Amino acid sequence: MTGPAEVLDCLGQRCPLPVIALARRLPDLPAGAVLRVLADDPAAAVDIPAWCRMRGQEFVGRPSPTAFDVRRAHP
């Protein structure tokens, strides 16, 4: 597996700002690209996977406690 196409630094931001930033940035990436969201708000651990399920995007995983990888599943 290759690394993320881009890293979105949302450290220090509180809910819902990391999810809003993810929702704004992901559509600019090509289908199949992975966006790594850096977020240290505890709510991100629930909010980011939930957003992926609701929007039909793929939550790839959490390579560290403050990193969340999301693959753009469709255009």
How many DSSP H or I helices? 2
pLDDT averaged residue by residue = 95
Q: Using DSSP, what is the number of strands?
A: 4
* Dominant shape: globular
Series of H and E elements: EHEHEE
Describe this structure in words.
- 28% of the residues lie in helices and 28% in strands.
- By secondary structure, the chain is an alpha+beta fold.
- The two termini are 21 Å apart.
Gist of the model:
The protein has helices at residues 17-25, 44-55; strands at 6-9, 34-38, 58-64, 67-71. By secondary structure, it is an alpha+beta fold.
What structural keywords apply?
alpha+beta; 4 strands; 2 helices; 75 residues
What is the topology?
Elements: E1 6-9, H1 17-25, E2 34-38, H2 44-55, E3 58-64, E4 67-71
Parallel strand pairs: 1-2
Antiparallel strand pairs: 2-4, 3-4
